[in-house]
Write a structure and sequence with these properties.
Layout lengths: L1 H17 L15 E8 L3 E9 L16 E5 L4 E7 L2 E10 L5 E11 L2 E11 L8 E5 L7 H7 L3 E9 L7 E8 L2 E2 L10 E2 L7 E2 L2 H5 L7 E4 L8 E9 L1 H13 L16 E2 L4 E16 L3
Parallel strand pairs: 1-17
Antiparallel strand pairs: 1-2, 2-5, 3-4, 3-6, 4-5, 6-7, 7-16, 8-9, 9-13, 9-14, 10-11, 10-12, 10-15, 15-17
Length: about 300
C-alpha cells in the first residue's frame, strides 16, 4: 500500500510539472525617464541623490546611471548643490549641511541630452518632529506580539520599544531606522516598522494611555541569538509626511519579480513634470536615541 501511495504521489507531481510553462506578459513600454532617489533632512550630513534612467520591464542589462547632471536643492533663499562622486557614477552628494524643520524645499535636476537639457523637479516639506525620544526599552515579551515570530524564527524575540511624547498632528508618521553597533539593520522595506499615529496623535507613545488601549508599539525586533551583551541599539526616528508614507507602501506592495502580484497601478511619484521623471524626493526630520542591550 505504501508503494502505491508513492507511485500516485510521483504521478501527481509529474502531472503538475508537465502543465507548467513560462508566461510572458506583453508590457507596454514608453520612453526612458529620469529616475530620482533623493533625500534632504535636518541632519547635519552629506545628503545624497541617485540618478538613473528607467528601463523596460524585461531588460536584463545593468541600470544606466546618469552622469554630468546639475543637481541642487533650494528653499527660495539658500541653494545647496549636489556634486557627483568620482567613483560612483550617478551618485551626487551635498557638502555637510542640515535642512530646517517646517521648511519647503525644491529639488532641481538638469540632465544634458543630445539637443536639449531635460529638467525635472520635486518639492518636499521637512515636517516637525518631537524634541527627543526619552528612552528605548528592549524586552522579549509584549502580549501576543512575539508568538508568531518566535515560532517562525525558532528563537526568543527581543522587541524594541520607544517612549516619547508624540506630536498632536495626526498626519505625522514616525519611521525608524535601526542600527546595531552603528550598522544599519533595518535596511530593507519589509524590516521597517512605522508608527502611524492617527487617533493616537498627542499621546505619550507606549505610555499608560496607550497601554489601556492595548496599543503598545514596537519599532524593531531582534533574535536573541543575534544580540550580545553590550550591543548598542540606536533608533533614528524620522518624522515623515503622509505622501511619503503612501509612496513607501506602494513601493513595498509592488516589489518583487512576479508581475501578477502587487498593486494594479504605477507607484506614485513627486517628481515632475509627469512623463519626464519618476521616484521620490524624501524630506524628513530626525531625532535619535540609543540603549545598551543587557542579557
Amino acid at each position: 500500500m505504501k508503494n502505491l501511495y508513492k507511485i500516485l504521489l510521483f504521478a501527481t507531481m509529474a502531472l503538475f510539472a508537465a502543465c507548467t510553462e513560462d508566461i510572458v506578459i506583453d508590457v507596454e513600454e514608453g520612453e526612458p525617464m529620469i529616475g530620482v532617489e533623493a533625500s534632504f533632512t535636518n541632519e547635519m550630513k552629506r545628503h545624497e541623490t541617485i540618478l538613473s534612467y528607467t528601463a523596460e520591464f524585461y531588460d536584463q542589462n545593468e541600470i544606466k546611471m546618469i552622469s554630468g547632471a546639475t543637481v541642487y536643492v533650494t528653499d527660495g533663499v539658500d541653494t545647496m548643490y549636489y556634486h557627483e562622486d568620482a567613483e560612483q557614477p550617478g551618485h551626487y552628494f551635498t557638502d555637510s549641511v542640515a535642512g530646517h524643520k517646517n521648511t519647503l524645499y525644491r529639488l532641481c535636476v538638469e540632465v544634458p541630452e543630445p539637443g536639449e537639457t531635460v529638467k525635472v523637479f520635486a518639492e518636499g516639506l521637512i515636517p516637525d518632529n518631537v524634541e527627543t525620544v526619552d528612552s528605548l526599552v528592549i524586552k522579549h515579551f509584549n502580549g501576543n506580539n512575539d508568538t508568531i515570530p518566535s515560532v517562525f524564527l525558532s528563537d526568543t524575540i527581543e522587541w524594541v520599544y520607544p517612549y516619547f511624547q508624540s506630536l498632536p498632528d495626526p498626519n505625522i508618521t514616525y519611521m525608524p531606522r535601526i542600527y546595531k553597533n552603528d550598522t544599519l539593520v533595518s535596511d530593507s522595506l519589509n524590516l521597517t516598522m512605522m508608527i502611524a499615529q492617527g487617533g493616537f496623535a498627542g499621546y505619550y507613545v507606549n505610555g499608560p494611555e496607550m497601554l489601556e488601549n492595548n496599543k503598545e508599539i514596537p519599532i524593531a525586533y531582534f533574535r536573541r541569538s543575534q544580540l550580545m551583551d553590550g550591543d548598542v541599539i540606536r533608533a533614528d526616528l524620522y518624522s515623515i509626511t503622509t505622501d511619503y508614507y503612501l509612496y513607501y507602501y506602494s513601493v513595498l506592495m509592488s516589489t518583487g519579480s512576479n508581475p501578477m502580484m502587487g498593486a494594479p497601478a504605477n507607484v506614485s511619484t513627486n517628481v515632475q513634470p509627469e512623463g519626464k521623471g519618476v521616484g521620490w524626493f524624501f524630506t524628513a526630520s530626525a531625532v535619535s536615541c540609543s540603549t545598551v542591550f543587557r542579557k
